[in-house]
Write a structure and sequence with these properties.
Elements lengths: L8 E3 L4 E3 L6 H8 L19 H22 L1 H8 L14 H5 L1 H22 L6 H23 L7 H30 L4 H28 L3 H25 L4 H6 L37 H7 L1 H17 L23 H20 L12 H8 L3 H6 L18 H24 L9 H29 L1
Antiparallel strand pairs: 1-2
Helix pairs in contact: 2-7, 2-8, 2-9, 5-7, 5-17, 6-7, 6-9, 7-17, 8-13, 8-16, 12-14, 12-16, 12-17, 13-16
Length: 475
């Protein structure tokens, strides 16, 4: 992991941006959001000693998504639990086969709906509930849910399969909602920090996906007992969530973090005749109560972030339309050879590991390069260009094929290349759009804007998941 010195960045009370070349002056001004000759803040900006804040935000990114990833990728465990642990006699069908057949669909609904509702609630609570309360409460709930699921791993649920299914769906709904509140709150908080901290948080989320993919491969290769491997996964998630609580409590002790977490003016709704408030050394950091609004002004945020919001939503729309519905059904053309690579390991490596690792690489590249800028027309052009990835995956060896019989890319190398391109482009472009969002608004709206950017992402994921079902039927 590489770090970028704070000396390589310019600062304002609202943003930090990388100085690359004079040709990016327009984009830099867009990130700055103020005139270049704005007077500096009287407080001296401390350095991120030993990259402590960067490491904490990266770890929080891992912890925010690692439990959810483990929950979703434990497919063999759910099959074992929901097939009735008593193992029905040969030729008999489990009475709960309908639950098993549609389990992933139920899990998807239990994940998506609470996420959207909790995002809306989190936006409304930005100015009502302190961020440390929202973060610690969501982490505590996530930890409690995973402790319950960890305890159930070694419990024989064969006599109450349907009740176990209901408990699992309820736990998934609570876990997903809590994870959304945690991730959107911390991402909103990083809006007041230099961009490298937002990038660290987003890269940490991708690392969580990569770790879960590697763990799944190791389990596939070595484990013979699904309950033992699942217990190890869930205990790892428990430990990481506990670590996240400790790291978040440690964050305010860093001088660097305290500087960027200092109080700012609450959001102010402008009438159109009065000028917007500007930070200045002589003004207090907190405005009078009469000018504050309990709910952040949504319309100005949506207006300022419309372009970047479209980029985020469309990026995740294309990605979720392909992954995992299409990419995980692309089989090796040499499957009949009986080789472990072409049978047992082909899909886990090409669809999961390669995508997650490429996504992590794309997000990490933004620590060094932030091009194109937030106002550049190149960014939405690159986002729209990713539409071409859909037919590329559809004409690989997707099975079963009903309507499109021809396979245009008759080699196993193509899924490898396409999955890598899908992950790399998703990681790089989505990270740029997400970290730019809170930087093009005033600092007091940065946290609320971070929540709104997360909402764009979930909209894209929901629409893409719905579209994936249509694409699968077209193939």
């Amino acid at each position: 992991m590489a770090f970028v010195s704070e000396d390589d960045f310019r600062h304002s009370s609202n943003s930090t941006y990388r100085t690359t070349s004079s040709s990016l002056h327009t984009d830099q001004e867009a990130l700055l959001g103020k005139l270049p000759d704005c007077p500096p803040h009287p407080l001296q900006r401390p350095e991120d000693r030993f990259n402590g804040a960067y490491i904490i935000f990266f770890s929080l990114g891992v912890g925010g998504l690692l439990p959810w990833n483990f929950f979703v990728t434990a497919k063999e465990y759910w099959i074992f639990k929901l097939c009735n642990c008593s193992s029905p006699a040969p030729g008999e069908e489990s009475e709960d086969s309908d639950i098993l057949n549609y389990f992933e669909s139920y899990l998807s609904i239990a994940s998506t709906v609470p996420s959207v509702l909790c995002l809306v609630a989190n936006f409304l609570l930005v100015n009502r509930v302190p961020i440390h309360v929202r973060v610690l409460a969501s982490l505590t709930v996530m930890l409690a849910i995973f402790v319950v699921m960890t305890a159930l791993v070694k419990v024989d649920t064969s006599s109450w399969t349907r009740s176990f299914f209901a408990v699992t769906i309820a736990c998934m709904a609570i876990l997903s909602g809590s994870s959304t509140v945690f991730n959107s709150s911390v991402f909103g908080m990083t809006g007041s920090f230099p961009m490298r901290n937002s990038q660290a948080l987003i890269s940490g989320g991708a690392m969580g996906g990569t770790i879960s993919a590697v763990a799944s491969l190791v389990d596939l290769a070595l484990s013979n007992d699904v309950t033992k491997s699942t217990l190890a996964f869930f205990l790892t998630a428990d430990i990481f969530l506990g670590l996240c609580i400790g790291l978040y409590l440690l964050l305010p002790r860093l001088e660097y973090a305290r500087y960027y977490m200092r109080p700012v003016r609450p959001p102010h709704v402008f009438s159109g005749e009065e000028p917007p408030l500007q930070d200045s050394p002589s003004d207090p950091l907190v405005a009078p109560r009469s000018s504050s609004s309990p709910t952040p002004p949504l319309c100005p945020i949506l207006k300022r972030t419309a372009g970047l919001g479209f980029c985020v939503a469309y990026l995740f729309f294309i990605t979720s339309a392909i992954f995992p519905a299409i990419s995980t059904n692309i089989e090796s053309l040499n499957k009949d050879s009986g080789s472990p690579w072409t049978t047992k390991f082909f899909i886990p490596i090409t669809a999961f590991l390669l995508y997650n690792f490429a996504d992590l690489c794309g997000r990490q590249i933004t620590a060094w390069v932030q091009v194109p800028g937030p106002r550049s027309k190149v960014l939405p052009a690159l986002v729209l260009l990713r539409t071409g990835l859909i037919p590329l995956f559809m004409f690989c060896n997707f099975q079963p094929r009903v309507h499109l019989q021809s396979v245009v890319f008759p080699s196993d190398i193509y899924p490898v290349l396409f999955s890598s391109l899908l992950g790399l482009s998703n990681g790089y472009l989505s990270t740029l759009a997400l970290i730019y969002g809170p930087k093009i608004v005033s600092r007091e709206l940065a946290e609320a804007t971070g929540v709104v950017m997360s909402f764009y992402m979930y909209v894209g994921l929901a629409l893409g998941s719905a579209c994936s079902a249509l694409l699968v039927h077209l193939i």
